[in-house]
Amino acid sequence: MGFYFNSHTLASFFLLLAFPAFTYGWGIVGHQIICQITQDRLSESAAAAVKELLPAYAKNDLSTLCSWADTIKFRYHWSSELHYIDTPDDLCTYNYNRDCKDEDGVKGRCVSGAITNYTNQLLTYGSSVDESQYNLTEALLFLSHLMGDIHQPLHVGFTSDRGGNTIPVRWFRRKSELHKVWDKDIIETTEDRFYDDVVEEFVDALKQNITGEWSDQVVKWEKCSNNKVACPDVYASESIQTACNWAYKDVENNTVLEDDYFLSRLPIVNLRLAEGGVRLAGTLNRIFK
Ligand SMILES: *[C@@H]1O[C@H](CO)[C@@H](O)[C@H](O)[C@H]1NC(C)=O
Ligand SMILES: *[C@@H]1O[C@H](CO)[C@@H](O)[C@H](O)[C@H]1NC(C)=O
Ligand SMILES: *[C@@H]1O[C@H](CO)[C@@H](O)[C@H](O)[C@H]1NC(C)=O
Ligand SMILES: *[C@@H]1O[C@H](CO)[C@@H](O)[C@H](O)[C@H]1NC(C)=O
């Protein structure tokens, strides 16, 4: 969920220096996985647009910059509230009109509104609209990151616990918070235990299921009804439901989370990473048609 920029900003800043991982939605690796799944699935025209928009130093690898939006939160303070949605405690539902706002109540300022915003900006690519109006490189990097975040179930979480950020838990023997368990801990333990700490092997396993196990569902994941280009509200609703059914379930302050929790939640994390990657590709393919 990241930080809240109020009187605690300075304290938060020092906390960030001490615990740099704290603010990363899905963690760097989660975003990298999603964008690696995406890049392989781009149409010819989308791949060309992505290549042109990426800075040269990215060497046409979108996944190297999929955490850019986290790294600029302190330079672009206004962007930190665009990574998540706070929903009413215990309701387990999301509603755009009710929930998509920032802490000052400004409507549209949430991860769903931001996905629509950056999608609309990218739709001006190659058109006659004044090119200096938007920075489409930034729009691409925001969209690629936020499409990941909206699939992290606890990025659409309860208001009072900030999407699990204020629920202290133990992850095996280490201290953690529930939000961080879903951003990073499950993914890191998976890499360590099943993939020899090689991210590419994890990505390959997900890709294999996308073209195998899950191939029947993939068409449905990609689809966006009513000819819409982006469908973030659907993904946000899925996330809060998943947060209730899996992330928050059976967890209280200081619960010790071990294999029972890890092994039962891992398939959910796998699915959300795969859906995030497939849908980012689907959205970019519709944008750059
Ligand atoms: C839309 O994008 C612009 C440019 O980055 C930004 O200033 C604005 O805050 C964004 N609004 C939302 C809701 O994403
Ligand atoms: C667009 O944004 C990128 C990343 O912040 C920056 O490096 C680049 O200079 C910007 N382009 C323009 C034309 O301002
Ligand atoms: C792929 O699908 C198989 C069969 O359902 C499952 O056992 C495995 O954990 C899945 N792997 C990933 C990375 O999703
Ligand atoms: C759980 O811990 C947090 C942070 O220490 C605290 O703010 C919150 O009140 C606690 N919740 C309960 C139900 O005890």
UniProtKB/TrEMBL annotation:
<dbReference type="GO" id="GO:0006308">
    <property type="term" value="P:DNA catabolic process"/>
</dbReference>
<comment type="similarity">
    <text>Belongs to the nuclease type I family.</text>
</comment>
<dbReference type="Pfam" id="PF02265">
    <property type="entry name" value="S1-P1_nuclease"/>
</dbReference>
<keyword id="KW-0378">Hydrolase</keyword>
<dbReference type="GO" id="GO:0046872">
    <property type="term" value="F:metal ion binding"/>
</dbReference>
<protein>
    <recommendedName>
        <fullName>Aspergillus nuclease S1</fullName>
        <ecNumber>3.1.30.1</ecNumber>
    </recommendedName>
</protein>
<keyword id="KW-0325">Glycoprotein</keyword>
<keyword id="KW-0479">Metal-binding</keyword>
<dbReference type="GO" id="GO:0003676">
    <property type="term" value="F:nucleic acid binding"/>
</dbReference>
<dbReference type="InterPro" id="IPR003154">
    <property type="entry name" value="S1/P1nuclease"/>
</dbReference>
<dbReference type="GO" id="GO:0000014">
    <property type="term" value="F:single-stranded DNA endodeoxyribonuclease activity"/>
</dbReference>
<keyword id="KW-0732">Signal</keyword>
<dbReference type="GO" id="GO:0004521">
    <property type="term" value="F:RNA endonuclease activity"/>
</dbReference>
<feature type="signal peptide">
    <location>
        <begin position="1"/>
        <end position="25"/>
    </location>
</feature>
<keyword id="KW-1015">Disulfide bond</keyword>
